Every structure is written in structure tokens, then in C-alpha cells.
């Protein structure tokens, strides 16, 4: 069974995107699709990026642990809000912190907003950064408009049937890429 890390990108007070991360964890586990761990950037509270992890003489133990979790993951789901058309500094920070860990790692992106567009404006800038560090961005999106209405604080969707149907397509594409990656490594 594959292992998927879900990066919850927002460190903001009252964040709504974390609800979506909680949903994906529940969805994947309830459907026995993968083992799952949420990597909550709010909990990590990394300092501002100064240098890639591999070049740091005395890296933070939490940064080393994060790196190991990404390496051990077969795939990653990034759940990110949109801030003024871009993604949060905390996500940019951790994206730049690592390098080899992202190489050919299947990554699916879920964008989130309180507005009607579901954070879709953020996809271009985030995908470009991930491409530059040689990650494998999965060609599927999971935009979540009006996240504060679409999910409760525990990650339970307001319309479970419709959300699960969308999640099946989204996670199915990620799982396909994970399997393709596994076969290529053999």
C-alpha cells in the first residue's frame, strides 16, 4: 500500500485549507487507498529559508525529519490556499528547503479559497516552482471554492457524495502516478 504525505500549507490563524487536508486523510484511509500522514506547516514553524537543507551545517532536527518524511512518501498531496494569486510563504519556504527529495516525486495539488474560484490562480506559480525542482506534478486539480462552507472544521464535506466523487478522480490519478513511478524504479 502506498504512503502519501499531505502537506497542509497554511499557517494562518483561522485557516480553512487545513479542513481539506483533514478530508483527504480521512478519504484515503476510509477507502483503504494509502497510509497517510499530514505534514502541517503550522506545526513545523520553519524559520525563513536561508539555505537548502543539504547545505546547512547544522540543520534543525524538524527540517531533517520533514525531509525524511518526504523521501519516505510514495506521493504527496499539497493543499494550499491562494494568497493574492500566489501560494503561502510557508509552502515556498519548505519547497525551497528541499531539492533531491522532490525529484520525480508524484505531487497532486489541491487549491483552496473562500471565494468562488477555489484558489485556481495559484496553480501556475506552484506548478512552475515544482517543475523547476524536478517534481512530478500530477495532471489533475482539486480546487475548493468557499472552503469554509464546503467543509467543517473536522474536514467533513457538506456534500460528501459529490466531494468523494471528485476525490476519487483526483486521488486515482495520484495513485496511478505512484504506481507508474514504482514500476519505473523496478
Features:
5-stranded parallel beta sheet, globular, 7 helices, single chain, alpha/beta, Rossmann fold, 43% helix
Structurally, the number of domains stands at 1
Termini separation comes to 16 Å
What would CATH call the architecture?
Answer: 3-Layer(aba) Sandwich
What share of residues are in beta strands?
15-25%
**CATH H-level homologous superfamily name:** Flavodoxin domain
Rg over alpha carbons = 15 Å
**Biggest sheet layout:** 5 strands, parallel
Your description of this structure?
The chain has 186 residues and is α/β, with parallel strands linked by helices. The protein has a single domain (3-185), classed as Rossmann fold (3-Layer(aba) Sandwich), CATH 3.40.50. The protein has seven helices and five strands. It has a five-stranded parallel beta sheet, sandwiched between helices. The longest helix has 26 residues, at 160-185. It is globular, with a radius of gyration of 15 Å. It starts with a strand and ends with a helix.
TL;DR?
The protein has 186 residues and is an alpha/beta fold.
Describe how the helices and strands are arranged.
Elements: E1 3-8, H1 17-30, E2 35-40, H2 41-44, H3 61-72, E3 75-81, H4 89-97, E4 106-112, H5 122-132, E5 136-141, H6 147-150, H7 160-185
Parallel strand pairs: 1-2, 1-3, 3-4, 4-5
Amino acid at each position: 500500500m502506498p504512503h502519501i504525505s499531505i502537506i497542509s500549507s497554511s499557517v494562518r490563524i483561522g485557516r480553512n485549507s487545513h479542513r481539506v487536508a483533514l478530508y483527504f486523510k480521512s478519504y484515503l484511509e476510509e477507502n483503504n487507498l494509502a497510509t497517510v500522514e499530514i505534514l502541517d506547516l503550522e506545526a513545523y514553524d520553519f524559520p525563513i529559508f536561508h539555505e537548502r537543507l543539504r547545505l546547512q551545517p547544522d540543520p534543525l532536527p524538524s527540517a531533517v525529519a520533514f525531509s525524511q518524511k518526504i523521501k519516505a512518501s510514495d506521493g504527496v498531496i499539497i493543499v494550499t490556499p491562494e494568497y493574492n494569486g500566489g501560494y503561502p510563504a510557508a509552502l515556498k519556504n519548505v519547497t525551497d528547503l528541499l531539492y533531491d527529495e522532490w525529484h520525480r516525486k508524484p505531487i497532486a495539488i489541491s487549491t483552496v479559497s473562500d471565494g468562488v474560484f477555489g484558489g485556481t490562480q495559484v496553480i501556475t506559480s506552484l506548478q512552475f516552482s515544482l517543475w523547476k525542482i524536478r517534481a512530478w506534478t500530477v495532471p489533475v486539480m482539486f480546487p475548493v471554492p468557499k472552503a469554509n462552507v464546503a467543509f467543517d472544521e473536522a474536514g467533513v464535506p457538506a456534500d460528501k457524495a459529490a466531494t468523494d466523487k471528485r476525490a476519487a478522480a483526483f486521488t486515482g490519478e495520484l495513485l496511478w502516478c505512484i504506481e507508474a513511478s514504482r514500476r519505473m524504479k523496478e
